[in-house]
Each structure stands twice: as structure tokens, then as C-alpha cells.
Amino acid sequence: MYNFDWVIFWKYLWPGTALQDPLIRTGLMVTIIVSIIAQLIGVIMGLFVALGKMSKIAPLRWLAEMYIWYFRGTPLLVQMMLLFFGLGVTHIYNFPDLKLGAFVISGAIQAGTIALAINEGAYMAEIIRAGIEAIDPGQMEAAKSLGMTYGLAMRRIILPQATKVIIPPLGNEFNNMMKTTSIMVVISAAELFFGFTQVNARLFKPFELFIAASMYYLALTTAWSFVQNKIEGSLGER
Questions:
Q1: pTM score of the predicted model
Q2: Which of 221, 226, 228, 124 is nearest to 182 (CA)?
Q3: For the chain, what is the HEC assignment?
Q4: Any residues with CB less than 8 A from the CB of 166 and at least 6 apart, and which?
Q5: At a CB cut-off of 8 Å and minimum separation 6, what does 96 contact?
């Protein structure tokens, strides 16, 4: 019968002791920062891809559709491995470590963030496109009749209204993003799950440690759920 190690479990479940371990402390910070950066980039990419897919210019529309088709149709794990190892072995780009003052951003973290952002952009493109198309087309026509350009009408009339449609699924995407960062473990990026795997390599207590790891992700997504509810409430969603 398996003897559950409560000492290890509580040590790595309770933030007061778990965060004393630099692997867990760094991993938690990396997970939060990477999630925010990747989601922001994904939203920006998604906006341009959505506009491209709605464009009357055929080449732009085809490029946007190909981007969405590929990145929604292939596994993120494969995309991340291809980006990090594929570009490295072909010497297209080796992802050197970046130094920002006292901080060093590893190549693995860079590649993982980019892969998450590019993948997210494909999903956000469809979310943003659906939000824009939910707005009555007559509003764009009315804006143009007032002399507004397409871009100005989008910024001042269409996108502000589409935000109410976009925010709920965007919030769900960010919730998923915080969990999906754990995939970065395959390229040895120092995120939260990687930290727990390294501690497990030292202590070999996978049951206790991975339950504790799951609680940290649950805490992150629960905290975000409260924030998301506040944001949606301020937009009149609740």
C-alpha cells in the first residue's frame, strides 16, 4: 500500500514553503508572465488575421485562412517543438538567451511564448471575426455615410461594440492559456510544471507533487475567473 507523504505534499502545496524553492517561485512567475504576453500578442495577431479574413483583397483573405487552417489544425505541442528544435537544427534561428538587466530570458521561454502566441492568434481571429460580424452591418454603412474611413469606423464604432461579444470567450482563452503553458515543459522552459518536475526528479514523489502542482493551476484559473466576472460585469454581461 502506498504511503502518502503528507510532509512533502503540504510543503509544496502551501505557498509559504513552496515558494521558498527557487524552481517553484521562478516557475510561477514565468507561467503568469508568459500567459499574459502570449495572450496579448495572440489578441493583436488575431485582430489583424480576422480583418484579413474579412478583407475583399483575395491574397490577404487566403493568407489569413491558411494561417487559421494550419495553426488550428495542428497540435500546439508539434508547433512548439518545430519552432524551437526545428529552427535551431536548421540554423534559421537558435533562440539565444536574452539579458534584460539582472534577468535572463532563456531561448526555451522565448520559443514557448512565441508558439503559444501564434497558436492563440488563430483562435482569437475566429473569436474577433465572430464579434465583428455580430454587429449590424448597417452601422458600418452609416459610419461611411458620415465620411468615416473603414479603419476609423472599426476603431470608433464596430470594435467597441464587438468587445462585449469578444470578452467572454477571450477570458476563457486566457484561462486555458495559463494551463497550456505547462506544455512548455517539453522544451525545458522554466515554467511552473517544469519546476515541479525538477523537484520530483530530486525527491521522486510524483503523486504528492503533481497534485500540489494541479492546485497551483487551479488557484490561478480560479483567481482569473473572479477577474473575468468583474470585467464582464462592467461591460453589462452580468
A1: 0.92
A2: 221
A3: CCCCCHHHHHHHHCHHHHCCCHHHHHHHHHHHHHHHHHHHHHHHHHHHHHHHHCCCCHHHHHHHHHHHHHHHHCCHHHHHHHHHHHHHHCCCCCCCCEEECCEEECHHHHHHHHHHHHHHHHHHHHHHHHHHHCCCHHHHHHHHHCCCCHHHHHHHHHHHHHHHHHHHHHHHHHHHHHHHHHHHHHHCCCCHHHHHHHHHHHHCCHHHHHHHHHHHHHHHHHHHHHHHHHHHHHCCCC
A4: 127, 128, 131
A5: 107
What does each of the 238 residues of the chain score in pLDDT, given as a tens digit?
889 999 999 999 999 999 999 999 999 999 999 999 999 999 999 999 999 999 989 999 999 999 999 999 999 999 999 999 999 999 999 999 998 877 889 999 999 999 999 999 999 999 999 998 888 877 778 877 877 887 788 888 888 888 888 999 999 999 999 999 999 999 999 999 999 999 999 999 999 999 999 999 999 999 999 999 998 888 764 4
Contacts 24+ apart (CB under 8 A), 153-160: 154/51, 158/132, 159/132
Amino acid identity for residue 180 in this structure: T
